[in-house]
Design a protein that fits this description.
The protein is α/β, with parallel strands linked by helices. The protein has helices at residues 22-31, 89-101, 121-142, 156-163, 203-211, 226-241, and strands at residues 5-7, 15-19, 39-43, 49-58, 61-69, 80-85, 106-111, 149-150, 154-155, 169-173, 179-180, 191-195, 215-218. The longest helix is centred in the middle third of the chain and has 22 residues, at 121-142.
Length: 245
């Protein structure tokens, strides 16, 4: 059984001892009910990881001792940007969780014509905080030491304009896409994968994406739900060009 893992904002000491921040300390002591001597891992979200043991637990205070730096590398060499149309709260959480587990590098939430979720500026800020916590929890579970970058939500038209000059391999999933992923050449840098909302893209959005250099790709003969398309697409990218090989 693997040791419990806790996200702790940087910096982390290379050795010695370290007080867990309040939230992971509560989780360790009150939820997991860990005890002195239990092995744990902590990571800072930027690639650093430390192994240690619980030296003491007193109330809400948890001290990790015998810290040892590790050089475990769990990041995919394939830089993936998931551009995901906003969907319902539960689906969006699921996409972020699974995308993190699949090694996504960046996530760009997009407001599209057919998005069922609409975010005011205040709600967007709250959702960003929530999504970050979803990604942290996913990293704690899957062993990643680098948090994916979650960008603030953007209108799809603004984002597509920004992407016009991008050198990334740009892909848009469409049911009638002309290309299959396995027929595309090996990308030489970042791969941007654009996923539509529950109702797909509007004709105008699809045209703008194609005019911005996106290649229309399909994944089989079936129409996938937005959350399925995101996960299936990332898994396919990792299988063809990433660390699933």
């Amino acid at each position: 059984m693997s040791a419990p893992r806790f996200y702790c904002p940087p910096p982390l000491p290379d050795q010695g001892s370290f007080d867990l921040p309040p939230e992971p300390a509560h989780h360790a002591a009150r939820v997991l009910r860990l005890r002195e001597g239990d092995e744990v891992e902590i990571f800072d979200g930027t690639g650093n990881e430390r192994q240690g043991v619980i030296a003491s637990i007193s109330g809400k205070h948890v001290l990790i001792g015998a810290l040892c730096a590790t050089d475990t590398a769990r990041e995919s060499a394939l830089h993936t940007l998931l551009a995901q149309a906003l969907c319902s709260s539960e689906k969006m959480d699921w996409v972020i969780q699974k995308a993190t587990e699949l090694g996504v590098t960046e996530i760009q939430p997009l407001d599209t014509e057919r998005s069922v979720a609409r975010l005011t500026a205040e709600r967007a800020t709250k959702r960003m905080t929530h999504w970050q916590q979803v990604a942290i929890s996913a990293c704690e579970q899957c062993g990643r030491n680098v948090l994916p970058v979650i960008h603030p939500p953007l209108d799809i038209s603004i984002w597509l304009r920004q992407m016009q000059s991008s050198t990334a391999t740009k892909l848009i999933l469409l049911p009638d896409g002309a290309s299959s992923l396995h027929k595309l050449p090996q990308p030489q840098g970042k791969v941007a994968l654009l996923i539509g909302a529950e109702g797909g893209f509007s004709p105008a959005e699809s045209k703008t994406a194609l005019d911005s250099g996106f290649t229309p790709v399909r994944m089989g003969a079936r129409v996938l739900r937005t959350e399925t398309a995101a996960v299936a697409g990332l898994a396919a990218l990792q299988t063809l060009w990433g660390d699933f090989q």
